[in-house]
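Journal club prep — side note

Before the paper discussion, L.F. wants everyone to see what a predicted structure for a comparable chain looks like in token form. Sequence:
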Amino acid sequence: MASTTRSTDSSLFTAVADTFTRMGWEFRRVEGREVLEADFEVYHTRTRIHAQVFAPLNAVSVVGTLSHHVPDSRSGLAGEMLMRANKDLTVGNFELDHDTGKVLFRVTNLFPPGHFDGTITASLVHTTLAEVDRLTPFLTLLLRMNPDELSKLNLKMFLMREDLLPPVPDVEEFTP
């Protein structure tokens, strides 16, 4: 399961690793960094979570990667879709890496010095998983549309489609 923490690790990184362990999430450490990676199956897809600790800031950042590759020919529409999705978010944001065509969801929390809350970290992971899962079918359809369909696409209305949303999970899944 987890790589053991080291005596040189920050207390925040140790606490994040402990939270992953308590949640029963299988993870691996990225060598030489205070980063954990874990793979999750969600309703629409499989995603990798990258949880990074920035000890000097007392921050934890969680990033989920969508499995799609956005070609240059669709990057404008995909970027607009992500920005429209971001408008409705309270926490976190979607990003498009134009160099690689990868779509990411990122959320970060700053903790007060010496005050770590594993519930917040678990919530960051759950939020990332939920948002990656929510956007996956929309991006899938956008990338499969032919030019005629794209010319008629109203992204604002498209993102309101409830038939593409994953079911809401049980509350018990969120308790660390």
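L.F.'s comment for the group: Residues 45 and 91 are 21 Å apart (CA to CA). Keep this in mind when we get to the figures.
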